[in-house]
Amino acid sequence: MTMPDDVPDRFRWAVDVMQVRPTDRVLEVGSGRGVAAALVAHGLDGGHVLGLDRSATMTTAALRRNQAHVAAGAVAFRTTSLADVDLPPASFDVAFAFNVSLFWTSPARELAVLARALVPGGRLFVFHQPPSPEKNPAVVEAATRLLTGAGWTVLETLVADTSPVESVCLVARHEP
């Protein structure tokens, strides 16, 4: 399967940052049109991506974009919210989201779902690219506060010069 060409910088950077191993099980929250899932799936060999999105329209678009990966069993999508999904415990090595506001608003229930779904030592990547870079510090501060308040440790905060504005990423691990 060929690597897609029509991929924004922020998604290429995100996949580089996550360093997903070929056999990792990856959960994407807010998968949208499946752009990031396609990039992750390109590097898998035995691993799997599950994308969640609340919009049936986005899920349909993601399935269309990832037809070959879905047919190969490397990718699946569900129309559901993170709060409502039933995921088996310790079923993912990596979870990530890009521009999903629940991570800096009030995600107590969602963070509990993620903590249960990730393997011990599993990593959460919260990515954000705002319309203007001035919003990033407030998002980083709010997300850090919410994550740490829910028992997560923010391991690092990364910034990238992505087009059209910079992107940030909080890397976190749940500490029971």
From TrEMBL:
What UniProt keywords are attached to this protein's entry?
Answer: Methyltransferase, S-adenosyl-L-methionine, Transferase
This entry's Gene Ontology molecular function terms read: S-adenosylmethionine-dependent methyltransferase activity
Coiled-coil ranges (or none): none
Q: Taking every annotated instance into account, which residue ranges of this chain make up the domain Methyltransferase type? A: 27-126
Whether S-adenosyl-L-methionine counts among this entry's keywords is yes
Q: Which Gene3D superfamilies match?
A: Vaccinia Virus protein VP39
Q: Which Pfam families match?
A: Methyltransf_11
* GO BP terms in the entry: methylation
Q: Which domain of life is it from?
A: Bacteria
DNA repair as UniProt keyword: no
Q: Can you say what this protein is called?
A: Methyltransferase type 11 domain-containing protein
Please spell out the taxonomic lineage of the organism that makes this protein: Bacteria, Bacillati, Actinomycetota, Actinomycetes, Micrococcales
